[in-house]
Amino acid sequence: MEYCLNIDKMDDKVGNIPHEEFTLDGTVDMHGHPAVRDRTGRWFAGVLLLVNQGLATLAFFGVGVNLVLFLTRVMGQDNAEAANNVSKWTGTVYIFSLLGAFLSDSYWGRYKTCAIFQAIFVVGLVSLSLSSYIFLIKPNGCGDEETPCGSPSSVHTVLFYVSIYLIALGNGGYQPTIATFGSDQFDEDHPQESHSKVSFFSYFYLALNLGSLFSNTILVYFEDKGMWTLGFWASAGSAILALVLFLIGTPRYRHFKPTGNPISRFCQVIVAAIRKWKTEQPSNGDDLYEGDGRELADNSSRNILHTKEFRFLDKAAIITSKERLDNPWSLCPVTQVEEVKCILKLFPIWLCTILCCVHSNGLFIRGTR
């Protein structure tokens, strides 16, 4: 009896909030409850994330853009060795981006991923600033075009590389997640917020370029004059401020729940299609397995309509006489198959960017010799 009364009270509380005040895209608040439109997300959260992105970009490029000069003037490396080390460092940033994207979508969620990797980013910048001030910039004022620095010890060199790779880990894990997390603050199923969602990406790109502009002009100037400690501390302060602003918005953020391991979902479609390689292909998508919707309700996803590209993958969604509906390695819903098709469609773009980046890095290395 008491349980029924409690249910009635909960229904009354929910009933006090009109249905249209909840977001329509399945987002939740920090407590896991359906997000209330007026209390979460929108431009309050969006502006915080835009400023956060601008400050984090300033902090990252404040270190990265002059790293070759630091390695040659302070660490005593030649141009070729310094350029090679910077290329390895930059590549590590992109590798860690894959890690951050995987953790945010699969297990941690975007908020937790951004918070953890930003904290690592701050630790790396503070460590770099301290090690430069205490150990590397000796004598004081060295590192400009005229005054060389003393040779660092092996311990100091290790501390330097630990610091910059912590920066790579932090920025790499944070960067691919923050843009998506910012777009989560706008309900694409709501007419007004859907327009704001599109505008957010434009402002996000603007914030990124403003942060890069400041670091590539003001900070570069001071670092080129040998004021390395000032430049690194400015980057560290910017990253700390960015993290504080990010945490301030915690009660107002909207969240999508993690969807699970995407690698296993991808492999399930491939394995299921191969296992039914000899199965006759249906003439259209109407006879394919659509699923019962439970997996969609769990991760706030939507159905994806069947397409005609990569039709051999449709075999994964064909129901045979011996089919078990509860075995994802032999039968996958159309939406899961279409997710794999979307990934395959991106491969040509991905391959083109590899060639572009290899060419750009090659020119960069040759130019520093």
From TrEMBL:
Belongs to the major facilitator superfamily. Proton-dependent oligopeptide transporter (POT/PTR) (TC 2.A.17) family. The chain crosses the membrane at residues 43-71, 91-108, 115-135, 155-174, 200-222, 228-248. This is Protein NRT1/ PTR FAMILY 7.3. InterPro entries: MFS_trans_sf, POT_fam. It is found in: Membrane. GO terms for cellular component: membrane. Keywords: Membrane, Transmembrane, Transmembrane helix.
